Amino acid sequence: MTAQILATLLPVFLIAGCGTLYGRLRNPDIATLNTLNMELFVPMLVFAVLADGQAPLEEYAGLALGGTVVVLGSGLVLWPLVKWLGLEVKTFLPPMMFNNSGNMGIPLLLLAFGDAALPAAVVLFIVEMLLHFTVGLWMLSPGSSLLRILRLPIVLATFAGLAVNLLGVPLPGWLLEALHMLGGVCIPLLLFALGVRMLDIDFSDWKTGLLGAVLCPLSGLVLAAPLVWLLGLSGLQAAALWVFAALPPAVLNYLVAEQYRQEPHKVASLVLIGNLGSLVVMPVVLALVFAHVHAGIGG
């Protein structure tokens, strides 16, 4: 089991480490790189996975519901504690809710369980992204434009992929292959970009960051435990929900906080220290998942 955990985590941290080293030496324009990834490569992957008729999306409805409850439920579970501690809700709660399902979640699930986990990883990523660009933006700015959200490339790719899949529109093999190849670029690029972002760690608010590093995976796992049983998830889908629930805050939280001027330095601490904390959390979670996945978690 130790070898399996190392085989899963070492490529993740090695690619992210390459990003950190390159960022230190060259100071690349990571904003442009992230824009290219989020506007082209990630939407290509999302569309290709959803449009591929080999992925029966109706089988992932329970997983999508579970992911939704984990995201929204984390905010509800932690809200009383955040108020009691006197923390700013708009600063602290979004990073606890919206996790790193892109930069870390997709590569981690693929390395842990192979290509068979790709549909589950993408479904959870779509759930998190759609909630982030709707509920998340509404939390920071109740007047956010719905039309602006609907124009996002990942949202358009999601709707287009769902339409092709549900209507049974056949796509030629060469087109799907090209889309999968382009989409595949996003996976190592997400990890590389995460590594570059790690250079921005601000330890001035380390206490808040450390608190978030504990509460983010803890709140997700507390919710995932009953959900796996209630939704009847087993095997890969149960494993995917457990990993999703334990992921650290998404880097996107920092970018959104910066855009809306919602204490971005504190959010940076929550995000980046939380991602450092995953060095401890994810091996433990993967050990538990690997120990039960073959028997069907929750089955």
From TrEMBL:
GO BP annotations, alphabetical order: transmembrane transport
The record gives the membrane topology as: Multi-pass membrane protein
Keyword Transmembrane attached: yes
Q: What name is this protein filed under?
A: AEC family transporter
Compartments where found: Membrane
Q: Which organism is it from?
A: Halomonas alimentaria
Gene Ontology cellular-component annotations: membrane
Source superkingdom: Bacteria
Q: Principal place where this protein is found?
A: membrane
